[in-house]
Amino acid sequence: DLLSVFKHPEAETNAAVHAAELMDTTVELIRQLVYKREKLLSGHDLSTLAEVTGCAAQLRPIKCSDTCLTEKYRSIDGTCNNRKNPLWGAANTAYARWLPADYEDGFSAPKGWNQSKTYNGFSLPLVRQVSHEILHTRNENISLDSSYTHMLVEWGQWIDHDMDLTPQSASTVSFMDGTDCSHGCINRNPCFPIQIPAGDLRLGGGTMKCMPFIRSSPACGSGQSSFLQGQLQPREQLNSLTSFVDGSMIYGSTASLARKLRNFTQALGLLAVNQEFSDGGLPLLPFAEKKSPNPCALTRDSCLANASDVPCFVAGDSRSNEHLGIQVLHTVFLRESNRIATTLHQLNPQWSGEILYQETRKVIGAYLQIINWRDYVPKILGPEATEAYLPPYSGYDESVDPRISNVFATAAFRFAHVTINPFLSRLDENFEENPSHPSISLHQSFFSPWRIIEEGGIDPILRGEIFTLAKLQTATQMMPEELTEKLFHPKKALSLDLAALNLQRGRDHGLLGYNSWRRFCGLPEAHTFSDLQHILNSSYLAHKLLKLYGTPENIDVWIGAIAEPLLPSARVGELLACLLGRQFQALRDGDRFWWENEGVFTPRQREELAKVTLFQILCDNTHLHHLPADVFSTSHFPSDFVSCKSSQIPRVDLAAWREDSADTPCGPVPLVEGAHYVQCKASVFFECWPGYIREGPSSITCNVEDREWSTVLPVCRGKTYHRKSLGDSCIKNVMLF
Fold first, then answer.
1. CATH assignment of the domain containing 665
2. Is there a domain that residue 171 lies in?
3. What is the span of the domain harbouring residue 110?
4. Average pLDDT over residues 62-85
5. Cys-Cys crosslink for 240: which of 2, 13, 515, 713, Cβ 3.0 to 4.6 Å?
6. What Pfam families does the record tag this protein with (predicted)?
7. How many domains in the chain?
């Protein structure tokens, strides 16, 4: 199904998922057959089982290399960012828990697993019922945000896809009894279906009794496999991405994916682009390997005469095809990455393709950090919360845990789902409805890269994103029916409900309820109707919530948080401001490669980086000629628009990255024929050109006292000189750190 398309893990993630699930299932079988597993398995047996399943490898400590280049560039998977805790923020590790997990059995089963169980004297409401009775809003009944455009919403999703992705179970069938999660309505791991309440407007009268839902994969060392850590621990979930804002949605979070996304035909540090189509001469994302059936053709009418089978795009994040808005940003930043790499090559022809790639990735990461923390976060948190949670940067703090918290990924940063406009505007050069390719309903943009290929490229969509208003969150207008009734709506298949999915995922992950998180943030709790009415500033919502949940103690954190009134000049309430503010502070202060951290960039480079704007990135990588200076804020055309050639908007000057090979204590860097090089402190690292092989050392060092270089230089020879004792071509030895 379409939901599984963007949950499909990469090879490294797949290994972690399979290991955890195999271990979890095996131990669960032992527990059922012989209640106390130690009666059946010795400690040696358990260790052997951990090795065989692969869980032991997932928990094995890693050793960080200590070289100049690993100090200079991030690892692709986020490891060793923190030298004392090398796995903090790394891909394929467990989310952080800011509060203990809250499972029905105290260990693994989500709340609602046993539907007859009560909490604080009340049964939990079905998540589809909560969605239908509180969140569901007709598309035509939404209110629009008078301050912000839909690009603000789009940026939130874009940056979220840089920070977290939870892989679901690799299996869609229960090992215990063969229950198929796609069809069965019984709770059997990994199946946790969303039950359809009687009287449901869309589904209650039909034969469908549930929506499929597959639990998130456990993490090795938690749940049934936690005995490996020496004590039983509640089930945890994996983040398959690096936590850091580092451009992983562009470059990937694993070595295998990063290699697939690169262009190795020339040593220029470029990303691969589409070889079949372009967008008016500008590159598009490359196609993924074709699948049958093609998941990116399921949303179009295959009976049309011109219905070509356009494959999905491929990018650093597997959700790049989710809808047209996110595809646009993926395309823009692919182009920007290649534009920067090309400019850096012109400035530093001595740099190898690998160094060009790493330097470009480093610059792009800084761009994302600056735009997000300077332009996006303050608009969401408001001035007071921004000042409280994000004081001026004071440097890297290795004691700060930068991992994404479970509550952030599973609830808090999903706040923006209630700000999504149910229509996707496509506008012409005058920012009016495009007559050739008019605006469409949001569900028509899901998994449809063919629209970019066949319907005018990314420019009409981009104009719509920066000119169309975001949806405004109100107590009576929460989530449009495009998302509650038509999510991932393929032909002849059941569409899903985003609100119900969010609530079910929170229970799957064992998130504590609304009151517990208000207590965590030092905010007053709701114990009565009067308390809840006061906190939400809405008797309507308080009544609706208590009618379903019975008591404030049972309210799911996501619905409670988005129900709060917005703080002044903010787009979230006080609980979300706390949870988001804490996370963005940890991501900044706990990142050794944060752009402002001393030594990451030179003072001149930091001065240039601070000039970056999303305005300029869009101008440089599209056919647009005029844009509002702040693409997140509402504007009027043409009075508020600025020419892309205007000197009013500052530009980043990449000349600050020019490297002077003569500026060393030992004089000019010795040249090696057939090799690129990069300076790193007192060392120079050489990499042979494609088609050449290296003899001798890979680097030389400047002896500062003697002011002399190492006497032995490497030699790069053509492949015709190849000997068995020599390594492969340098192009294969990419430093994916």
1. 2.10.70.10
2. no
3. 68-165+242-642
4. 91
5. 13
6. An_peroxidase (PF03098), Sushi (PF00084)
7. 2
Report CA torsion sign: 413, 168, 207, 179.
negative
Burial of 613 (0-12, 13-18, 19+ CB in 10 A): buried
Tokens linked to 184: 């069965």
| Locus of tokens 């070595």 | 255
DSSP state of 437: S
Predicted local confidence at residue 673, as pLDDT = 87
Q: What is the pLDDT of residue 731?
A: 32
Burial of 51 (0-12, 13-18, 19+ CB in 10 A): exposed
Query: Is 1 inside a domain boundary?
Result: no
H or E element, residue 68? helix 68-72
Count CB neighbours of 460 within 10 A.
26
* Whole-angstrom distance, CA of residue 14 vs CA of residue 164: 16
The tokens describing 378, both together, are 């303050």
Question: 539 and 510, same structural domain?
Answer: yes
Phi and psi torsions of 514, nearest 5°? -55, -50
**Which three-class secondary structure string do you get for 571-623?**
CCCHHHHHHHHHHHHHHHHCCCCCCCCECCECHHHHHHHCCCCHHHHHHHCCC
Residue 148 · residue 571 · CB < 8 Å:
yes
- Just list the catalytic residues: 161
Same domain (yes/no): 437, 522: yes
630 plus 694 within the same structural domain = no
Tell me the sheet residues that pair with 433.
427
Indicate the helix (H) or strand (E) that contains 408. helix 406-410
- Looking at the fold, whether 515 and 421 belong to one and the same domain comes out as yes
CB contact burial 658-687 (16+ within 10 A = b; e otherwise): ebeeeebebeebeebebbbbbbbeebbbbb
* pLDDT tens for each residue of 309-356: 899 999 999 999 999 999 999 999 999 999 999 999 999 998 989 999
Please check whether residues 334 and 293 belong to one and the same domain. Answer: yes
Overall residue count recorded for the chain in this entry: 737
With CA atoms as reference, report the closest residue to 580 among 411, 420, 413. Answer: 413
Q: What is the pLDDT of residues 436-485, one digit of tens each?
A: 999 999 999 999 999 999 999 999 999 999 999 999 999 999 999 999 98
625 and 642 Cβ atoms separated by less than 8 Å:
no
Domain assignment present for residue 104? The answer is yes
pLDDT at residue 42 is higher than 70 = no
- 3-state SS, residue 93: strand
Measure the CA angle with vertex 686, ends 680 and 692; round to 5°: 160
DSSP assignment, residue 162?
T
**Confidence category of residue 418, pLDDT binned at 50, 70, 90:** very high
Q: What's the whole-model pTM score? A: 0.92
Tokens standing for residue 703: 């002896």
Given the DSSP bridges, would you call strands 136-137 and 479-480 parallel, antiparallel or unpaired? Answer: parallel
Tell me which of 492 and 328 has the higher pLDDT. Answer: 328
Q: Which two tokens stand for residue 553?
A: 């103690």
Residues 248 and 337 in one domain: yes
Q: Are 311 and 288 in contact (CB under 8 A)?
A: yes
Spatial separation of the C-alpha atoms in residues 620 and 625, rounded to whole Å: 9
**Residue 224 CB partners (closer than 8 Å, separation 6+):** 23, 24, 25, 27, 28, 31, 108, 218
132 is in an annotated binding site: no
Q: How far apart are CA 212 and CA 207, in angstroms?
A: 14
Token readout for 181 is 């999660």
pLDDT at res. 3: 52
Q: What is the mean pLDDT of residues 575-591?
A: 99
pLDDT at 31: 72
Do 354 and 328 touch, CB atoms closer than 8 A?
no
Core vs surface per residue 500-525: b (16+ CB within 10 A) or e: bbbbbbbbbbbbbbbbbbbebeebee
